[in-house]
Amino acid sequence: MWSLPTSSKDVCRIVNGLLKTALGPPPGSSTILSPVQDITFRHESVKCLVSIIKAMGTWMDQQLSVGDSLLPKSLENEAPANNHSNSNEEDGTTIDHDFHPDLNPESSDAATLEQRRAYKIERQKGVTLFNRKPSKGIEFLISSKKVGNSPDEVVSFLRNTTGLNATMIGDYLGEREDFPMKVMHAYVDSFDFKEMNFGEAIRFFLRGFRLPGEAQKIDRIMEKFAERFCKCNPNSFSSADTAYVLAYSVIMLNTDAHNIMVKEKMTKADFIRNNRGIDDGKDLPEEYLGALYDQVVINEIKMSSDSSAPESRQSNGLNKLLGLDGILNLVYWTQTEEKAVGANGLLIKDIQEKFRSKSGKSESAYHVVTDVAILRFMVEVSWGPMLAAFSVTLDQSDDRLAAVECLRGFRYAVHVTAVMGMQTQRDAFVTSMAKFTNLHCAGDMKQKNVDAVKAIISIAIEDGNHLQDAWEHILTCLSRIEHLQLLGEGAPSDASYFASTETEEKKALGFPNLKKKGALQNPVMMAVVRGGSYDSSTIGPNMPGLVKQDQINNFIANLNLLDQIGSFQLNNVYAHSQRLKTEAIVAFVKALCKVSMSELQSPTDPRVFSLTKLVEIAHYNMNRIRLVWSRIWSILSDFFVSVGLSENLSVAIFVMDSLRQLSMKFLEREELANYNFQNEFLRPFVIVMQKSSSAEIRELIVRCISQMVLSRVSNVKSGWKSVFKVFTTAAADERKNIVLLAFETMEKIVREYFSYITETEATTFTDCVRCLITFTNSTFTSDVSLNAIAFLRFCALKLADGGLVWNEKGRSSSPSTPVTDDHSPSTQNFMDADENISYWVPLLTGLSKLTSDSRSAIRKSSLEVLFNILKDHGHIFSRTFWIGVFSSVIYPIFNSVWGENDLLSKDEHSSFPSTFSSHPSEVSWDAETSAMAAQYLVDLFVSFFTVIRSQLSSVVSLLAGLIRSPAQGPTVAGVGALLRLADELGDRFSENEWKEIFLAVNEAASLTLSSFMKTLRTMDDIPDEDTLSDQDFSNEDDIDEDSLQTMSYVVARTKSHITVQLQVVQVVTDLYRIHQQSLLASHVTVILEILSSISSHAHQLNSDLILQKKVRRACSILELSEPPMLHFENDTFQNYLDILQAIVTNNPGVSLELNVESQLMTVCMQILKMYLKCTLFQGDELEETRQPKNWILPMGAASKEEAAARSPLVVAVLKALRELKRDSFKRYAPNFFPLLVELVRSEHSSSQVPQVLSTVFHTCMGAMMDE
Questions:
Q1: How many CA atoms lie within 13 A of 185 on its CB side?
Q2: Contact (CB, 8 A) for 230 and 209
Q3: CA dihedral of residues 555, 557, 563, 565 (deg, nearest 10)
Q4: Is residue 584 within 8 Å of 465, Cβ to Cβ?
Q5: 208, 173 Cβ separation under 8 angstroms
Q6: Which of 34, 41, 110, 700 is buried deepest, with most CB atoms within 10 A?
Q7: 1063-1073 per-residue burial string, b: 16 or more CB within 10 A, e: under 16
Q8: How far apart are the first and last CA of the chain?
Q9: Under 8 Å between Cβ of 963 and 1060
Q10: Rounded distance, CA 233 to CA 380, Å?
Q11: DSSP letter string, 1056-1090
């Protein structure tokens, strides 16, 4: 391009001059031209403008084709619209360009100018943003370093920058946030009110902004103003409060005096009266207030106002419809300007100055310009007049040649602005053309409008790579064309596809052929005939009145004009999409999704035209590289999800079916390993399945997925993830038919196509397992749950045997042969087990959680399958993995029995993945389930004892937890399991391991004791039988409901507690009897501690007479059996006595080391005292005296019953004494002889006691006396 040095206004003058000619003389002015001359003159001016924009486009195309090395890099990109700097204030995006200054001097100049221009545009962008949202604008300017981050620098910007909205300045200064508050303070402090009149100070202060409308904001600003004024004038008022109140009064006076809406004005006297006492209770001088009143009333305090737009010129109705008023105002305003305005004008002036400096003295010198960026400046100053000239001419003239010329101008202008990346200008031209098609008001359509449609189609095909956001206007036009053509041909409306209540007969009828049958007073038809505005997405049918026949006839005639545009031309735009470049096709898809959404969301006439086109263009572009196709699908995916969740069920079904068709086509393509695009492609099904509230849609998705998978199973790779997610969601669905339908397909996949699941990626195995686990939780039918559990066992078998294709490949490169042994399995990691943990974890933990299912059959089945899997495949587990299995799979199973505690929180389990977590208990086990679980646990532990020996302590603690369970079933199960564990492994236990077992049992017993004693204290507030009469003893009327519940709970808790303690005693006793030869003194010590503790507790419980009375009364009222406290005491002492006697007799070494014989005597004496207490003195304590009593009371019924219960125990004590060695008997005889004498004097319920007592005296005491 040859550029002659010109003045800064030459380009503007040329274009604006042609615009003036094209528009003709202004209204009301005279001209010497005839009408024909005037029209010719106008048309020639339009031709000149078309030639100018055409020349620009021609030169631009030449430079782009031969001078690529001199272009900005952004122009070499496929999407210049996204990379060029943009002066659109609303866009808020500017990008610097690299102009390669070393290649061309003009390029260097342009780069420098562009940088300066970019700075100014960036700053102007901040101003624009400030005028919309002040806080955002300041943040943007500070972040882009156009304004400093200190309050003072922001104040300088607010006070010195032109173009700021005064109202927004006031709003920002009134904000309560910290930084705006600091800015407001700095802003007010920047004023100097020294020696200034108060009224003038307010007037001066308010020149820079307008007070905000919110009272709190005004309050903050005026409060600071008052403070500043008093600081500058310290002697003006008594305090800043006076200035604050007076400032409000002045503002109110100003509003009252100068607002025409206020009829009754405030008088001077009113003003003075309103301000009395504001100066710390004193009045300000009346002369001062009167002068202030006159000053405000005479001279209005005018706040800063926004720049007013130029006066609007009168426009005809079509100009308003087409939105031309703003364009014409812009043009007329620029014609009256003396100077170039804004950053562009300054940059153009700089270019001209550089041209002058290079031209020397010759004013006719030309300069070669090869930088396309220079063209932007020319377009920026000329596009407005061109748009106005083309639009007004096309609007006002029906001349075919003039219309064609204007449309040519539009096409050239769109081409130039689109290629140059000038989004605002491009969109303005495209929008104007779209409005001129008049498709939104087809009843007024003319030939020039049809020509505009053709031009739109040409632009779409020729400049599609640069249209970007403008695609939406073009595709909207194509949608409206198709709609009108269908109506003209009488084809059924798309709405018929969505109307579920219509009969097939009505659907077949559709609309009549309007070209043949005339008018039809159908609401939708009437709306189309009437038309609407261009921006209306839907045309409402509720407008009053019927369509007249002449309107119908005119509409039909105009529809005939659309016959010039065939379906081939429309479809060509969509077919041409496969030739679009990357950024262009992405923009095209975005726009088409918007148009389709608008069609589908129409409340009166939903359409699927653009939706079908979306499926088509997806098919056309499916062969693009994955990187591009992924970007396209990310847009389509969100669209399908949004529409699939539509409240319009018919629309959602249509969309899901369209997605199914597209997915079927895509699954025909083979996907390689390690890709994830199939999963992304099917993601819309997953999201809609998870979020849709429509059962019909969820069922449709399950059917679609089932059909796709079963028909394309060999092609499914990464898509398995989405498939299993859909079925997982379906498994938890509230509709039974959806659950069964999904499980039917899932069953077929696992049975027949399992090898395909992990063909390319083994992680899909985990997804499959999670899906099956979800099916196991289905409550509709147990068959589904049980079959799913069976499939989980099948999956475990495949995993252990290397059935995963991925595992087989791993083995081929790194073979591993696990060593199997019934008692000593391999301890090395199975096939580098760290990589396989993620596959076993969900399977095992899922089954573990199922053990707390409320259904007994599911609990038992899951227990059986889980422990069978562990037992069958445990030989390939490493020790580390086994630790994890125990801590997070096995132990949580028993939560339902012993609840949450810190029993298993040990550091040794911390290395296991955090995905393992104890699941909360929901259902208490029955006796059968508890027995099964304990039995399975012991079997597993015995089978892999060598590997999992470190878990002995935790396993024993767990069994001890079962023993101390309040329920009978778990307690019995725990006892049996612990005994079996000791029986199977007792000979392999070390000293410490035996000690761990007994310590665990001891801990279980002690924890039970402490918790039970807390329970007993709840009975303290309940009266016993001593405080009640005989009539009130069994009367429950004087006991409230809470006390009854407490009594009932304590009785039940006491019974279960006694059962648990007896079970602990049984376990300890049996363990000693079976393994006494293996036990050391340290083990015996723990055993004796347990027995001593429990027997002492039993004696204490049975000796608490007050507690017994309360319990007896509670049982009487509640009609319950009493807790067997006496039996508890006798049984514990009997076992304690037996163990002590066995140690003394069978293990003399331990007995001597622990002095067990002394403990035996102590227990024997205690038992005798308990017996004598009930037989001899009926409750009085035994006096420690050897003086004989001279009277004996007979036993009562209760005492006889107790004596009879204790007789066997006393007999055992006497036998134990009898069996003592002579030396031992002699040593302890002084201690127990008085007790034996008392036995002689006592009344006995059993004859066996005197008989054994006689034997003791005869054989032991007699022998000792003979010595």
A1: 10
A2: no
A3: -60
A4: yes
A5: no
A6: 110
A7: bbbebbbbbbe
A8: 145
A9: yes
A10: 52
A11: HHHHHHHHHHHHHHHHHHHHTTT--HHHHHHHHHH
pLDDT of residue 589: 92
Angle at 719 between CA 714 and CA 722, to 5 degrees: 140
Containing H/E element for 1130? helix 1125-1146
Residue 1173 vs residues 252, 302, 1182: alpha-carbon distances, Å: 101, 109, 6
Nearest 5°: phi and psi at 329? -60, -45
If we measure between CA atoms, which residue out of 1142, 1161, 1138, 1132 comes closest to residue 1076? 1142
Assigned token pair, 914: 């955090």
Selecting among 214, 489, 928, 1243, the annotated active-site residue is 214
- The token duo for 404 is 């064609």
Alpha carbon distance 719, 713 (integer Å):
10
Helix (H) or strand (E) holding 120: helix 105-132
User: In Å, what is the CA distance from 40 to each residue of 47, 53, 682?
Assistant: 10, 20, 62
Closest CA to 562 of 474, 472, 452: 452
Phi, psi of 282 (to 5 degrees): -100, 160
Cα–Cα distance for residue pair 402/49, rounded to 1 Å: 12
Q: Can you tell me whether residue 367 is helix, strand or coil?
A: strand
**d(C-alpha 614, C-alpha 630), whole Å:** 15
Q: Are 176 and 221 in contact (CB under 8 A)?
A: no
- In which residue ranges of the chain is pLDDT below 50? 1-8, 66-108, 306-348, 359-364, 500-512, 515-521, 537-544, 805-834, 899-918, 920-922, 1028-1033, 1177-1187
pLDDT in tens, 650-692: 888 888 888 888 888 888 877 765 667 788 888 999 999 999 8
pTM of the model: 0.61
- Classify each residue of 740-761 as buried b or exposed e, where b means 16 or more C-beta atoms within 10 Å of its C-beta: bbbbebbbebbeebbebbbbbb
17, 21, 44, 409, 908 from 47: Cα distances, Å: 13, 11, 5, 8, 89
Identify how many contiguous H helices and E strands the chain contains and give both numbers.
Answer: 60, 2
How many Å apart are CA 820 and CA 873, to the nearest integer? 10
- Our answer to whether residue 462 is catalytic in this structure is no
| Cα distance between residue 704 and residue 681, in whole Å | 14
Nearest partner of 1238 among 1203, 1192, 1195, 1205, judged by Cα: 1192
Distance of CA 160 to the CA centre of its chain: 46
**The dihedral formed by the CA atoms of 1251, 1255, 1256 and 1257, expressed in degrees to the nearest 10:** 100
Among all chains, which residue has been given the structure tokens 């528009």?
23
What tokens does 552 get? 């119908």
CATH 1.10.1000.11 fits 195-304+322-332, yes or no: yes
For 1174, other C-beta atoms within 10 Å of its C-beta total 23
Rounded to an integer, what distance in angstroms lies between the CA atom of residue 886 and that of residue 624?
51
DSSP 8-state code for residue 950: G
Which helix (H) or strand (E) segment holds residue 927: the answer is helix 927-943
Say how far residue 864 (Cα) sits from the centre of its chain.
Answer: 37
* Residue 890: both structure tokens together: 């096995």
CATH architecture for segment(s) 132-190: Orthogonal Bundle (1.10)
Dist. CA 382–CA 1045, nearest whole Å: 93
pLDDT in tens, 253-295: 888 888 877 778 889 998 888 888 888 778 889 888 899 999 8
> What is the C-alpha to C-alpha distance for residues 92 and 1245, in angstroms, rounded to an integer?
106
Task: Give the total residue count for the chain.
Answer: 1267
**Cα–Cα distance for residue pair 493/501, rounded to 1 Å:** 15
Among 1162, 1160, 1094, residue whose Cα is nearest residue 1132 = 1094
Q: Which two three-digit tokens encode residue 887?
A: 């801590």
Separation in Å, CA 175 to CA 217, 220, 394, 1160: 6, 9, 49, 88
Q: Are 1076 and 1142 in contact (CB under 8 A)?
A: yes
